[in-house]
User: Fold these one by one.
Assistant:
Number 1:
Amino acid sequence: MTESIQSAPVSDKSCPVSPLGYPSSLIAPGETYESVTETIGSIVLTKKPPPSWLVGFGLSFALLMMLFAAIAWLLYKGVGIWGINIPVAWGFAIVNFVWWIGIGHAGTFISAILLLLHQKWRTSINRFTEAMTLFAVACAGLFPLLHLGRPWVFFWLLPYPDTMGLWPQFRSPLVWDVFAVSTYFTVSLIFWYVGLIPDLATLRDRAKTRAKQITYGVLAMGWRGSARHWQRHQMAYLLLAGLATPLVLSVHSVVSFDFSVAMLPGWHSTIFPPYFVAGAIYSGFAMVLNLLIPVRKLYHLESVITLRHMNNAANVMLVTGMMVAYGYIMEAFMAWYSGDIFEQSMMANRMLGPYGWVFWLLMLFNVLVPQALWSRRVRTNLVALFLVALSVNVGMWVERFVIVVTSLHRDFVPSSWGMYYPTVWDLATLFGSVGLFLTLLFLFARFLPMISMSEVRELVAESQENKA
Amino acid sequence: MKYKLYGVVAEFTEAREVVEAAKRAYAQGYRRMDAYTPFPVEDLAEALGNKWTRVPLIVFTGGVVGAVGGYFMEWYSMAVDYPINVGGRPFNSWPAYIPITFELMVLCASIAAIVGMLVLNRLPRPHHPVFNVPEFERASTDRFFLCIEARDPKFDPAATRQFLQSLHPSSVKEVAE
C-alpha cells in the first residue's frame, strides 16, 4: 500500500508555480489512485472525527437548537415576534432568503458551468460546493415558508386540484419563486447524487464494518464501474450540467423578479437579474473559500485542494465583485438619469438617510475590501483570503438588507414612512440558520466523501500520462 | 467446487491496457463482454462496441414533456378553468408563463436523466456475478477489469482464458455465476 498523505504532509510552499508565478498544479506530485482514494475515503471510513470536528459540530448543533426554539416561538405567536410591520413587511426573512440562495449558486456554477468550460480545477472542489449549495438552498427555503404566517398551508402555493377550486396565480413572481427554488433544489440533489454513485461504490468496497458496507452498498445501488454504465453515467452527468447551467442563471433572476416586477423605487429596474446573478456567484465563491480554507487545513487535503484552486476562486470573486460594483454604480446613475423624483429621493435616502451607514458599510465590505484581491500575495495567502471572503459574505448580506429595507421604509407618501428594527428573534433565526447550514456540512464531511474520488483518479491518470 | 461459469475476467493495472485489451477482444470476435474501471475511461465503451447511448433522447423527451405540460397547466388554469380579469390583460398572457415553463422543463429533463441512466444501466442491482471475484474489490480504486461472458457464442473456457492470458494482465480469474 502506498503512503497516505497524512503521513507525508504537503506544504503549500512546494506547490509548483507557472512562469508568471501563479500556482499551477491541481494535485500534488507523486499521487496514485490508491493514495488519493485513501486520503479522501479514510476521512469517512476509518478515522474517528478529529476533536475540532466534535467542537465545531457541537457549536453548530447548539445554534440549530436555537433555530428550533425560534421557529417554535414563531409558530406559537406568529410573525409579530419579528420586527416586520407596515411599511417594512419583508425584513430579515427575505434578506436571509436572498442571501442563502445566492450562496447556493457557487456550487452549481462550479459543478456545471466549469464542467462545460473544461475547467479542470473544479474537480477537487465540486462535491463540497454542491453539498454547500444543497444546504444553503435548504436554509433559504425555510425563510419564505416561515414568512408565510401560516406555514402549515404552504401547499396552497402548489398547483393541485384543491377543494377550493383555486389555482396559484401563475403570473406572480412569488409563484415563479416556488417553482424556481424547488426545481433548483431537486436538480442540485440529482446532480450531486449522480456524481456520488461511483464514490459510494468505492466506500462500499473499502468499508470494514458490516453496517457501513450495507449502508454505502444500498446508496451505491450496485454500481460496479462497468464501461457501458460509465458511458451513460457520463452522458447523463454532462446533460445535467447543461440543464443546470441555464437553471442557475434563472433562479436568481427569478428571485430578482420578486423585486423588479414591483413598482417600487429602487426595485423596479431592468438591471436586477444580471446584477443579482453576479452577486450570487460572488457570495457563493466567498462562502466556498470561507469553508474550504479551514476544511483543507483540518483534514490535510493540501495535496488535492491546492493553492491554484484558491487563486482561481479568488479571481472569480474579483471579477463578479466588479460586476456587482458596476451594478451599484448603474443603480445610482439610473436613479439620477431617470429624472424620476421618487427614484432620486430613494437613492438620496439610501445613501444619506437613516440607513445611510448601512449603505456605506456595504461599499466598504463589498467594493473596497475585495480590491485587495488584485494582489497575488493576497490571493495565495490563506488568512488574508479568508478575511476578504468573510467581508464579502457579510457585505452581500448587507446588500440585501439595503435593497429590501431602504426601498420599503419610505415609499411615495411621507405619511406612510416608517423604520424597521430587527428583534432578537430575527437574529436568532438568522444565526440559527447558520447553525442548520453548518450542522449539515459537518455531517456531510463525516459521512460522505468531500471530494469526488473518481474524478480525482481521472486527474491522476492524466498527470501520469503527461509524465509518460 | 462445482459452479456455473459467468465468464472469465482479466485484471489490469493501467487504463490504456484495458482499452487495448477490449479492442483486441472485439477484433477476436467477442461481443458479450464488459470492462470495469474505477473512473470513466475514454474510448472504452466504444472499444467494446457500444457506440452511442439513448440517454440524450430520454432527457430531450423529458424536457419536452415538462415544457409542454408546464405551459398547458398555466394556460388551462389561468385562461380556461378559472380566468381572472386583471385590468383587461389577456388571459393567455404567455410572457408571464415562461419562467415556470422553463423551470418545469429543466425539472422533468433532469428527472428523466437520472431515471433514464439508472434504468438503462439496470440499476439498482445489489449483486452481480463479477463481485464474486475477490480481486474485484479494487475495481473501484485502482484496478481495471475486462470480463468476457460465458453467454458469448465464441466463449470457450480454455481458449478464452488463454486469449486473455496473451494480453499480459496481472491476473485471470473465472467468475462464478
Number 2:
Amino acid sequence: MKWFRDLTLPIEASTTARDIDNLYIFIVWLSAFFFLLIAGLIAYFLLRYRRKGPNDVTPHITHNLTLEITWSVLPLLICLVVFFWGFNGFVRANVAPLNAMEIQVTAKKWQWQFEYPDGTRTINDIHVPIGKPVRLVMTSEDVLHSFFVPAFRVKHDVVPGRYTEVWFEPTKLGTHQVFCTEYCGKGHSDMLAKVHVDDEATYKKWVEEGDETLRTMPLPQLGKLVYEEKGCQTCHSLDGRRTPNGGPSWKGIYGTMEEMSDGQKMLVDANYIRESIMDPQKHIVRTYEGIMPTFQGLLREREVLGVIEYIKTLK
Amino acid sequence: MANHPTTQAIHSPVKEDVSVNYITSPKGLMSWLTTIDHKRIGIMYLWAVLGAFLLGGIFALLLRIELLTPKETIMTAETYNKVFTLHGVIMVFLFIIPSIPAALGNFVLPLMLGAKDVAFPRLNLFSYYIYVVGALFGITAMVTGGVDTGWTFYTPYSTTTNGQVSMMVMAAFILGFSSIFTGINFIATVHKLRAPGMGWFQMPLFVWGMYSTAVIQVLATPVLGITLVLLMLERSFGIGIFDPAIGGDPVLFQHFFWFYSHPAVYIMIVPGMAIISEIIPTFSKKTIFGYKAIAFSSVSIALVGFLVWGHHMFVSGQSNLASVIFSFLTFLVAIPSGVKVFNWLATMYRGSITLEAPMLYAISFLLLFGIGGLTGIFLGALSVDIHLTDTYFVVAHFHYVMMGGTVIAFLGGLHYWWPKMFGRMYNERLAQIGCGLVFVGFNMTFFTQFVLGSRGMPRRYYNYLDQFQALHAFSTVGSWVLGAGLFLTAGYLLASLRKPYDAPRNPWGSRTFEWETQSPPITHNFDFDPVLIHGPYDYRPEKKG
C-alpha cells in the first residue's frame, strides 16, 4: 500500500504521523471493502434480477431479524474500533511532552510571527532541531486562523483572545510547508510559512547567526526574498498598480518625492524606507489608509538593508 | 361516495381525459398567486428552488474556472471569496434545504396519505411567500456588494468585515421561517389527515422521512434564527458576545451555528433517503425489506443528529473531552444510515428490476451516498480528522453526501413524480444519458478533491501551490461534464411540458396512493374517498374477483 500512501498523503515527518496514517489506511481498506461489496451486489442484482416480463412475481420478503441485527452490530463494532484508535491518537496529538521547546506564535492577517524562548523573532519561518519536541503556543491578533503542517499531521485553530497549541517532534530534515487553514479574508491563501528542520549543528549555527541565506545572499536578492516571504507582496505591487486596501506600489519609487497625508513631501530614500518598515504610522502616503503593521523586531538588520537595495532595483 | 378505481383503470392503456386538472383549473395568474392548493404551491417552490440551483451552480462553475490556475485566472481574491460564499449560501439556504420538502414533499405528501391537502393550506402559501421575501433579501445582498465570510459566517471575521453580512444573515433568518412553517404543516398533516385504515405503519416510508425531517426543521431552525440575530446585533451594536476584542467568544458562535447546521444536513439527506425508499421497491416490483427498521432509522437519525455538532469543531479550541464525546456519538449516528443502505439492497434481492431514469438515480445514490458516508468515517476519527479537517477532503465529503446524496435523490424523485405532477412523460433515452453525464462528471469533479485534501490542500483557497494544479484542473473539467448533464436534464424536462398529456395514472406500477388518481391530479386530488386496501409496498398479485 506504499504507493497509495505516496499518492494520497504527504511525507511522514513527525513522530505522530505514522499512527495517523495507519488509521487512515485502515479506514481506506474498510471503505474499499464496503463500497465494493455494495457496488458488487448492485451489479449482480441488476443482472440476475432484471425484469423478465410484465407478469413477474417477486417474493414478499418483509424482514429478517438475524440479518438485520448482524448488519447493525457488526458495523457498530467496527466503528467503535475506529473510534478508540482515533481517540488514542488524538490524546497523543494533544498532549505535548514535558521537555518540549516552546515557541510563541502570533497569527494576524496575513502573516505568522514566531518568538523563541531566547527572544529571537521571525516571520513566516521557524528553524527547529531534528528529533526534539517543539510546542507552539498560539494566539491571533485579529480573526480566526489555523496552523496546519501537512507533513507533521498537525493542525489547530488559532483563536483571538486565547491560546491554543500544537506540538510535534520532527523526524525528517528539510523544509516543510505551513498553511493557514481557517478562512481569514483576502490573503488567506497566501498566509504560508515554513518549518526548517535542521540537524543539531546547523540549528546551533542558525540560533547564533541567523540562517545561511540571511548571512550570505546578495542584498537585492535577499530583499526580493523578504518581499515574497514576509508579507510585503500582499499589499505592495511591483508593476505600478495600486493594491486595493493595500499600500503604494514599489515600482520606481526610490528617489522620488511622495506626498504624505498631512501635506508634507518626503524623499523616498534609505531612511524613509527604514522608517516605513519600523514605524509605518509615522507618515502615511496621501490617499492610503494607515494599516501597515510594524516590522520592528521581526526583521534582522540585513533583511532591512536587503529590502532597501531591492527597492532601488525596481525601475 | 365514489369507490376506488379498479386495478384495470389505474393501468389502463386507454387515455383518459385529464384536461381538467390542478394546473388548468382554476385559470389566471391571480389564481396561482392566491392558491392554497398544496400541488400549486409545490410547483411554485419547484421553480424557485430550481432557479436557485441554477444560480448557485453558475457560481460553482465560475469558481472552478478560477481554480484552473494558481493565482488570478478570471477574478481577484476578493471576488473569489464572495463567489465561494454565495455558492454556499445559495445552495444551502435557497436550494437544498427547501428542495425536497417544499417542492416534492408539498406535492406528494397529502396525495400519499389520501388527503385533499395539508393540514394548514394557508400557512403553506404563507411559507412560500416568506421564502420569496427571504430570497429577495439574499439577492439584494448579492447585488449590492455581496458577502465574503463563507456560508458559515465564523466570527470575528463576519462581525468585522465589510459587505452585506447583515442583509444576507437577515435573508437566512427569514428563510428559516419558511422551513419551520413547512415542518409544522407536515407534522400536523401526518398526525391528522391519513386515510382510513392507514396507521403509522401503513404509511409510505417517504412520509416517515418527511415527518422526521419536519421535527428537525421545527426544533433546530429557531436556534439558527437566534444565532443570526445575535450576529446582527454584534455587527450593529457591538454587544460583545462573539468578538474577543469586545469580550466575546468566537468558539461560542461555532457551537450555536453548528447546533443548527448539523441537524440541517439531516434535513437535507433524510428526505433524499425517503425518496430512495419509494423508488427502489417500485422499480424492483418487490416489497421494501425492513419497513420498520427504515422508519425508525429516520427517526433516530433525526434525534441523534442533534448530538454530534461538535465534530465540525475538533480543532477549534473546544475541550478535548467534548471532542471525544462528539466523535463517539458521530459513529453511532452512522449506523442507521448503513442499515438503510443494506435494507435497500435486500429489497432489490430477488426483485424484478427495471432501469428507467428514477432507478438509475437511485442506484447512483447508493454508490455516491455510499462513498459520502464512508468518507465520514475518516472525519469522525479524531486523529485522522486533525489532518483532514479544513482541507478539500471535507469539501469532497460534503459534496458526495449533499450532491451525490440529496441532489441525486431529488433528481430521482423529480423524474419519478414528473408524470404525476405534469401529466407528461419525458424522453427516457435523454434521461439516461443525462444521469450518466451527471454521474461521471460528479465523480471527476469531487473524487479528485479527496486526494487534494489528503495531500494537504486547504479549503477556501484562491491561490495554491503549483503541485496541486493538475488535480484542480481535472476537477474543473469534471465540473463541465457535470454541468452539461444538468443542462441536458433541464432541457428534456422542460421540453416534455410542450407535449400533450400522455402520462397514465401509474406509469411505474407503484402501490402508493398518489398513483391511483389521474396525472396530473384534479384540484381536490381524488374523485373517490381513499381507503387503505393494501400496504404501500404490497406487490403480491391481487386476488381475482
